[in-house]
Write a structure and sequence with these properties.
The structure is a homodimer of 382-residue chains. By secondary structure, chain A is α/β, with parallel strands linked by helices. The first copy, chain A, is globular and about 60 Å long. Chain A has helices at residues 49-54, 64-69, 73-78, 82-86, 98-103, 130-140, 158-178, 196-208, 225-235, 253-261, 271-277, 309-313, 316-324, 328-354, 358-368, and strands at residues 6-12, 19-25, 28-32, 34-36, 60-62, 92-94, 108-110, 115-118, 125-128, 144-146, 185-190, 213-216, 245-247, 266-268, 280-283, 286-289. The A-B interface holds A 41-50, 66, 70-71, 75, 78-79, 85-87, 296-297, 299, 309, 313-315, 317-318, 321-322, 324-325, 327-329, 331-333 and B 41-50, 66, 70-71, 75, 78-79, 85-87, 296-297, 299, 309, 313-315, 317-318, 321-322, 324-325, 327-329, 331-333.
């Protein structure tokens, strides 16, 4: 039987060293570098599966913790798995719940066994372990599952970061032991906070475990972007060359471009849809707050030349009106645009790699992009 | 120059006397009987114009009062009119604001001149007169404008109902005098509450004024359905035969069928989208509360055999999950279904008239329809 998952690097950019690749999965091929829109609760917010396909989505992300709570993996399994449940026939990746351990930190208690969660909905307790995470993810049935890890905060002391990393490695082994689905790939997750030696150690240890792909966790957790880039500069050359590398939770346009230059293949982020619902559009100049009064009589599209439904059919003035009066359709139109913007950006990035001109592309990108229009993690939640 | 508006009765059902017709407008032909989805604020809630076209919508309704407040008719006019503003190239009908006078009754003061409104958004005063309503509607530029009328409540004494009706007639004349757009049809509105002689007088007076079409106002304002049908039985035979008849604000499936049998050609109602957002689907059996726990593991579509996107792609279990976790996509899918359900019902009604079997169709309709699953006006707002 042919292996269900193979990753090929099809081209290395002569100018930047960034790579083009293809990850083959049971639900189709994923071209890399790729941006993965986030469908936390088995839908990308305000979007249908058909729309996600129409805007060129190649792979979706869904959240294990949220789906475990509602509707529960048993229901999804009864439905025939996540693909059938949400009518999405392309690849899906599920996270492990590990980031929720981190981001809902005051609601849980971590031990060597796993994490005792307090369900944020009803306060009941649930025990998430590497084995439970694997069971849930196998029941959900995504193409790619992630190992259950321990994420360290930005300002974490060395000993704690080392402890979290070492536990992540032990848990990664337990995940491998518990993971049996052959039609599902398991990715390990590199940790080590902002300590270069820990990161190097994590890459080495997990590399020896021969995962199908690797997540880079614990970045974009509040640190300045330069510090994240510095860690990437340090660890990317050590990462296995023949495996896809997924920078978890990163999704501003500038970070995507900078990270691809450094060798990252996969990204996810909720920013595109979250800011959309607040009336902010992602554009080559950074951001455009469609809700602002200055667009009230602006009959141009959100982004001139964008091929999305919102830009080819509706004006800033119309969308601003919809946002202003609280119509869901306004949030929908900006969501469509923002997702398409990031997917299109990655199409352009892949094209630039194919043409050995990714550094030129980056320069052109910054010629338009106003850094004041970018986002830092967490900012968009304000 | 050919008249921009003509109405043809193309067929009368031998079994029921109901009619098939076509209303020709500058933005295309409208087959009657027809259900008009409501896009109060220049969008049907949670829907895009493209989706409205895809589900077979032939004409949309928009609200003059709401659009006057936001974004204002000046902006819509600058955009090139409502069709361009909302990217809808088929016919549009705007109401006159008269029903808002009635339904926001504690916020306004009616005189012979017009209505002094208190803007429900910011408390500022605005003066709506027949002339102002015509000016706004002409600026909005829908295909069909409605005369500015005075609606009486269900339990209105005779003298007050007569006074409101006579004022409606005087205002109808002022609307005709103020209305100058030749590419926009003006419909008069029959009033007279639940008094047969007043209704007859209103039909006669307005009939002599030779409007392009006629709204029937002041029904479905809280009365039992039988009382509404009784008024329709009384007045429909008197209505001009060569003009379209629009029963305003009526939109439950049973009322649509009963009213077509009595000779009504056009309908509008917000019920389909309003109940959708609460998780209730319209089905041949009446209603299906998708949100209910009993559908948690039901992998069948909302309505077996329905051709809408929701029913051909998604299960009750999935949609229930989305509603249950508060995802907009859930409200969207039920909205698509509910609108398509009413549009499809009217397609079936037109087909039954064409085949001279509308009374058979009505019998078949009631064989499945549980009246306990119907709605009365206002109930869906609870």
């Amino acid at each position: 039987m042919a292996k269900p998952f193979t990753y090929e690097v099809t081209k290395v950019c002569k100018q930047s060293g960034a790579r083009l690749g293809v990850l083959h999965t049971p639900h189709g091929d994923i071209p890399t570098p790729i941006y993965m829109p986030v469908g936390t609760q088995a839908t990308v917010k305000a979007m249908t599966s058909r729309e996600m396909r129409d805007i060129g989505t190649k792979i979706l992300l869904a959240n294990t913790y949220h789906l475990h709570l509602r509707p529960g993996e048993n229901l999804v399994k009864k439905a025939g798995g996540l693909h059938k449940f949400m009518d999405w026939d392309k690849p899906i990746l599920t996270d492990s719940g590990g980031f929720q351990v981190f981001s809902l930190g005051d609601l849980n208690k971590i031990s060597e066994e796993g994490v005792l969660f307090r369900n944020h909905l009803d306060g009941s307790l649930l025990n998430m372990t590497p084995e439970v995470s694997m069971q849930i993810q196998q029941d959900l049935g995504a193409d790619i599952a992630m190992a259950f890890d321990v994420c360290s905060p930005y300002l974490c002391d060395y000993d704690k970061a080392k402890e979290n990393m070492e536990r992540t490695h032990r848990w990664a082994k337990r995940c491998q032991a518990a993971h049996t689905r052959e039609d599902q790939a398991l990715f390990g997750i590199v940790q080590g906070a902002f300590y270069r030696d820990l990161r190097a150690q994590s890459v080495e240890t997990l590399g020896e475990m021969d995962f199908i792909g690797y997540g880079i966790g614990g970045l974009s957790v509040g640190e300045p972007k330069d510090i994240m880039y510095d860690i990437l500069d340090h660890i990317m050359p050590m990462m296995p060359k023949d495996k896809p590398r997924y920078l978890m939770g990163v999704g501003t346009a500038d970070c995507l471009v900078e990270s691809v230059v450094r060798g990252v293949d996969m990204f996810d982020c909720v920013l595109a849809t979250r800011v959309a619902r607040n009336g902010t559009a992602l554009v080559p100049e950074g951001r455009l707050v469609v809700r602002n009064a200055k667009y009230a009589e602006d009959f141009s599209p959100i982004e001139e030349g964008c091929d999305c439904y919102a830009c080819t059919h509706h004006s800033r003035a119309y969308i601003r009106h919809l946002l202003n009066v609280g119509e869901i359709t306004g949030a929908r139109l900006v969501s469509i645009h923002n997702l398409r913007y990031l997917l299109r950006l990655m199409e352009q990035v892949r094209e630039a790699i194919a043409q050995d001109r990714l550094l030129d592309f980056r320069r052109e990108f910054y010629a338009r992009f106003d850094m004041r229009g970018s986002f830092n993690r967490g900012e968009e939640q304000a």
